[in-house]
Here is the input.
Amino acid sequence: MERSIMKTIILRKGKEESLGRFHPWIFSGAIHHTEGGSALEEGDLVEVLSSDGRFLALGHWQIGSIAVRVLTFKRQPINQAFWQKRLSAALDVRRCIGVAGREDNDIYRLVHGEGDNLPGLVIDIYGPTAVIQAHSVGMHVCRNELAAALRETMGESLKAIYYKSETTLPFKAQLGQENGFLWGESDNDVARENGLAFHIDWLKGQKTGFFVDQRDNRSLVERYSKGRKVLNMFCYTGGFSVYAMRGGAELVHSVDSSAKAIELVDANMELNFPGDNRHEAFAEDAFRFMEKTPSYSSVATEVVAPLCGAVATSSGYSKDPSRPKGDLEGLYDLIILDPPAFAKHKDALHNALRGYTKLNAKAFEMIQPGGILFTFSCSQAVNKDQFRTAVFTAAAMARRKVRILHQLHQPADHPINIYHPEGEYLKGLVLYVE
Here is the structure.
């Protein structure tokens, strides 16, 4: 049950300007004082007033630098009807962009926080199952109303609602929250994306069980995969790998440090390409795997230098003992780097940029001439220019000529509120390496 509106927040003079621009966050430093009797509890619904008493917004109170996540700039009841209206608007957008209501695609994000005017809330659809994830205590408090509104919005297409917020709610709130079904049950974990089938691990997997935000970029990998040797680093459950296989890759190697993820990669391959021996998966640390994979520079030295009468100083490498040591054909010519967030807050920015530079430099060293590199950052603290500079630095370190073919971002079912540019978190580049 939603807590009743009991308390009011008064802002400092001049601090209402961002709300006039419809920014959905109020920072703690903007608050002058609170009114309404007892102390605020995290998750409370609060009314926000300017220093001269004008109504500004309603939102959820939380502890931290972001003190209020704004739900509406109008005075209105925050109840099941409110949630249902917002969810219906979100579903209309997904129908408009063509990810909902298709026989070949029943994986998509229905609610993307501030991008759908529901800050602190994520809802992903996997076939007949919806997975709700709360990133604020306010949304946690409202979870049952949200589930009821979701059932009304989705109708008979929905059979189960799973709540997965153990790791996303503020730990200081001490809610003791456990994941579980809010409504219905489902043991069918297979859903379809663009005609491909995937096992979805909403019970123990990362995020809500699948990286929904890379759907369009996976399709682009498919377009570039024909006849190529593909390396998918940080593969998780193998989304990019499955698309590369359908695209006609000569071979696909998937690497992730999680043995559980590798099990799911193999299961997803068996769903789509049973018995196909073009794919192999490795449960290994990404940097360790890349360190023992041949670099183009060292292999080229061993293969080419003797032909020129020079002395080869670098040792080649081949996983296949039947191949000559240093065989250029053994190198990858399409590499995908989709690491976890290296920086979840600005304090970690410097180390994150160093990490991106090191990772991409190794990929530039490894990839064949004419190769394609897909490289991503999902760190919200790293902006597009910073990421691009890190990749530029890596290319220079590896002394490779590089062209940008595509600049990538999150898909349309992860919309960005025009008043909340912070919602743009996924950045990617597709590079042609000479």
User: Anything to note?
Assistant: Residues 211-293+332-433 form a domain with the Rossmann fold fold (CATH 3.40.50.150). The radius of gyration is 24 Å. Residues 300-326 have pLDDT under 50 and may be disordered.
